[in-house]
Amino acid sequence: MEKGVPVLEDLPSPQGKNVLVRTDYNVPMVGGRITDDLRIRLSVETLAWLLDHGAAKITTASHLGRPKGQPDPAFDMAPVRDRLNELLVAAGADAGRVDVMDNLRFDPREEAGDLSFAEELVAGQDLFVNDAFGAAHRAHASVVGPPRLLPSAAGRVMAREAEVLGRLLHGAPRPFVTVVGGSKVSDKLGVIEALLERVDALLIGGGMCFTFLAAQGHSVGESLFEPDHLEACGRLLAGGGRVVLPTDLTVLSPGGRHGAGCLASGVVRQVGADVPDGWVGLDIGPGTAAEFSDIIGEARTVLWNGPMGEFEDPRFAAGTRAVGDAVAATKGFTVVGGGDSAAAIHAFGLYDRIDHVSTGGGASLEYLEHGDLPGLAALRDGALGG
Ligand code: ADP
Ligand code: MG
Q: pLDDT of 13-26, one tens digit each?
């Protein structure tokens, strides 16, 4: 846990009090139905603790999706309210004492970080708990405002995330191996740079590996490639030899269709570290997957962020699956961050075999890059912080 961030036990007794809880109920929805309720399920622990300790009334506040600062029925909290109610009842908690307020982003002052909105949120409330790790990297009104106005603490989800990610930054058992993938190197250069100083090996796959490979003089064909970051990738490669790049790749022939649920077409081949003209690199090859798995198997700490290929297309899932299996199998302490990486972990049935799957993609990367988040700093700077 980040030093000085107050937790539930640091609050004045919730007995008979009204408590505002900033939750992360930004759940994936399709046609008004929740497709993954993990974030709602995880919130129950904090809510149940507050109810057990006598809270008179809990009001949860969250954003959901991206309404444009005005009420929009497509982002109504009603499905969340219903699901939370079911979960609280199933947990034997007094659901009647818990209210789910409207989507915070129905008001433009939320994203603007307007303190007047925070003042309205805390009206009639006695205590504030922030359990929305997934929003902690945003200086939005509901994140940074209430700790200035009420005795405030981190909820269980927030405290666990900060504790686990803090452990990666401060004294992670070595060897410490980080695996980074995903689509764009530009999204993750900052965190790669910050982690490079701390890790023993940094394994790079996914779409971002091509800008690194290009910096080494390899041809990348039609693969994802960000020329603006060529120089930065070259600089990271020059600094110490901890970066490990693919030595073979799985590629698709010119014009082949690829992606989730598409009408797949084209020829799939294994090649070395050079992609032929017109072909697209969409996964690490089997040799690389085996090498990465060996390195992961030796690690005492593993952090994984970003799929190794376009795993949504089964022809390009093997690298991500191999890395997922290796992370699940290693004896070391394992952390997975990133929305799509977490989705892969779920799809492969590996969730229970990972020590910590972060609930906040952007928040976990920003924490690892900067060592702190606005939401945590606000709690530390509040009356109960130290
Ligand atoms: P996370 O959400 O785990 O941080 P990202 O959002 O950075 O991951 O990237 C995930 C996406 O990257 C996936 O949708 C995947 O299809 C895509 N991807 C991975 N490798 C490649 C590749 N070689 N070419 C194109 N897209 C890729
Ligand atoms: Mg993503």
A: 999 999 999 999 99
> Is there a contact between 128 and 60 (Cβ–Cβ < 8 Å)?
no
* Cβ of 305 less than 6 Å from ligand 1: yes
Q: How confident is the model at residue 213, as a pLDDT?
A: 98
362 belongs to the catalytic site: yes
Secondary structure E strands in the chain: 18-22, 29-30, 33-34, 57-61, 98-100, 127-130, 152-154, 176-180, 201-204, 243-244, 249-252, 268-271, 280-284, 301-305, 333-337, 356-357
pLDDT digits (tens, 9 = 90+) for 64-106: 999 999 999 999 999 999 999 999 999 999 999 999 999 999 9
Sign of CA dihedral 84, 85, 90, 96: positive
5: helix, strand or coil: coil
| Dist CA 208 CA 146 (whole Å) | 39
Q: What is the pLDDT of residues 255-297, one digit of tens each?
A: 999 998 888 899 999 999 999 999 999 999 999 999 999 999 9
| pLDDT for position 3 | 52
Report CA(338)–ligand 2 centroid distance (Å). 6
Angle at 142 between CA 303 and CA 366, to 5 degrees: 20
368 lines ligand 1 (CB under 6 A): no
Q: DSSP readout, 289-306?
A: HHHHHHHHHH-SEEEEES
Ligand 2 centroid to 192 CA: how many Å?
A: 16
Pocket probe mutation, ligand 1, options 137, 178, 183, 252, max atoms within 8 Å of Cβ: 183
Poorest-pLDDT segment among 115-119, 238-242, 325-329, 376-380: 238-242
Burial class for 222, CB neighbours closer than 10 Å (0-12, 13-18, 19+): middle
Residue 39 a catalytic site member: yes
How far does the centroid of ligand 1 lie from the alpha carbon of residue 333, in Å? 24
